[in-house]
Amino acid sequence: MKLDDLARLQLTYDEVGCTRYDETPVGLHRLECTERIGAGDEVFQRAADALLTWRMHRVAGFGTTATDTPPRVGTDTLGLLNLGILSRRLQSRRGVPIPCRVVWTVDEPDQIGFAYGTLEGHPECGEESFLVTREGDDVHATIRAYSRGASWYARLGGPVTRRAQHYAARRYLAALRRLAT
């Protein structure tokens, strides 16, 4: 799968935009991690820059290519998940493709970020958002996702798959903190 191939793919879930809201859609698992990553305007700007240039993804160890930088609604992204020997059996030697499309963005004085939704071929089904917010002098980062397994191996993984998602969210937050301070 190549980045150019994603334009023809459809989103794999009906609850588009769900990560903007606090209510968990029926049938999806919720993940939410928020962390204070620093304080002040410079921290907010560096965190926003790291998020909007995809550096957060790369530093977290999840290489992602995208059709647009900064992300905008309709931007397609392609990551690769390396599952070792399982990747070779499932998709390719390079890893399992993780195709997504940006479904909403926010760019306000005290809040910046975006969400992407899963496309056909993604092992999960759902949406994940990345927000940097400023409350007074404090700067926070929030990762929120609603998902369910789409592939047989993600469904079979159940709690292990959800634990891996929490691990990924923590890596994103650590990367943002490191890049912003």
UniProtKB/TrEMBL annotation:
<protein>
    <submittedName>
        <fullName>Uncharacterized protein (UPF0548 family)</fullName>
    </submittedName>
</protein>
<dbReference type="InterPro" id="IPR018960">
    <property type="entry name" value="DUF1990"/>
</dbReference>
<feature type="domain" description="DUF1990">
    <location>
        <begin position="12"/>
        <end position="175"/>
    </location>
</feature>
<dbReference type="InterPro" id="IPR014457">
    <property type="entry name" value="UCP010260"/>
</dbReference>
<dbReference type="Pfam" id="PF09348">
    <property type="entry name" value="DUF1990"/>
</dbReference>
